[in-house]
Design a protein that fits this description.
356 residues; UDP-galactose 4-epimerase, domain 1; 2 domains; four-stranded mixed sheet
């Protein structure tokens, strides 16, 4: 029998990849999108005629009940959120309403229409829960220490999922996803900002790349791998929570260096803190500079996941390497300017080095 899935946040990076994945699995796919005065469906335009969309919002309880009642999904993937950490400091109340109470509203909508025992719910949790990390690497049992309104809101979302699972016997689980990127990543996120800026610089449209904390270390994977893990979580006999990560870590500085190397520019770093600069070895031109404007009020310095549980219990492993991810993002951003990556970029991908 064909399954039906409902995806909140279907127009986002993860939502679009998940929709593709579910269609390939033979699902009927529904998505919730927010009303906008301009088109915001670019990531799903290629599958627009294969999915069914409903206007809605995680801050509107009656709307969620109506959509759940109409669709009666076998699986719900809650990917909708205000997901930008720095923006959450400027919009803390909206972030809480969407990311925290929005999760509660979705759980209650499922219960209200009588699907608590039949519908399975995946909650998009986040490595930002670990914040000021209490151990390295972070696993499912690592204590949380959120460091932003976004992370605090997601902490509520995490625990309300656990509570409803235990209180009402609902099949609901948290995917504690570490950073995951792709060519579809939003332009304000640091990885996309770097790859798109490098492309703009090569195209002669931008002079320098301006960033915040270059020392921040993250565990970066590919969104395609991570949506596969989401689906696998809902196919298990019992609901549970899983860390999804690559178990490898690189700094923002590392990401920059690799991007520039793939386009034929070797970067050396000089100075410290706000005075640090990335300089083109060949020309002495400053390519990267640091601005205090891009620092968070409370920084998360290091995130590194231990995905042993997901590997052992789900059989999930990441398939796309860090360098393949960076190459794919650059290739896409270059194409936006009618450019192609140098052939040497693939040599960088294939060689053995600190990024493997």
């Amino acid at each position: 029998m064909r399954k039906t899935a409902l995806v909140t946040g279907i127009t986002g990076q993860d939502g679009s990849y998940l929709a593709e994945f579910l269609l390939e699995k033979g699902y009927t796919v529904h998505g919730i999108i927010r009303r906008s005065s301009s088109f915001n469906t670019a990531r799903i335009d290629h599958i627009f005629d294969k999915i069914q969309l409903h206007y809605g919002d995680l801050v509107d309880s009656s709307n969620l009940v109506s959509v759940i009642e109409k669709v009666r999904p076998d699986e719900v993937y809650n990917l909708g959120a205000q997901s930008h950490v720095k923006v959450s400091f400027e919009m803390p109340e909206y972030t809480a309403q969407t990311d925290a109470v929005g999760t509660l509203r979705l759980l209650e909508a499922i219960r209200t229409v009588g699907l608590a025992k039949s519908t399975r719910l995946y909650q998009a949790s986040t490595s930002e829960l670990y914040g000021l990390v209490q151990e390295i690497p972070q696993k499912e049992t690592t204590p949380f220490y959120p460091r932003s309104p976004y992370a605090v809101a997601k902490l509520y979302g995490y625990w309300i999922i656990v509570n409803y699972r235990e209180a009402y016997g609902m099949f609901a689980g948290n995917g504690i996803l570490f950073n995951h990127e792709s060519p579809r990543r939003g332009g304000t996120f640091v990885t996309k900002k770097i790859t798109s800026s490098v492309a703009r610089m090569i195209a002669g449209k931008q002079k320098r790349l301006v960033l915040g904390n270059l020392d921040s270390k993250r565990d970066w994977g590919h969104a395609k791998d991570y949506v596969r893990a989401m689906w696998m979580m809902l196919q298990q006999e019992k609901p549970d929570d899983f860390v999804i990560s690559t178990s490898r870590q690189y700094s923002v500085r590392d990401f920059c260096s690799l991007c520039f190397e793939m386009v034929g520019k070797k970067v050396s770093w000089r100075g410290e803190g706000l005075n640090e600069e990335g300089v083109d070895d060949a020309t002495g031109e400053v390519l990267v500079e640091v601005s205090e404007a891009y620092f968070r009020p409370t920084e998360v310095e290091t995130l590194l996941g231990d995905c042993t549980k997901a590997k052992e219990e789900l059989g999930w492993v990441p398939e796309i390497s860090f360098k393949d991810l960076v190459h794919e993002m650059l290739e896409f951003d270059f194409a936006q300017f009618g450019l192609t990556l140098p052939t040497d970029a693939m040599d960088v991908v294939k060689r053995s080095d600190q990024y493997c």
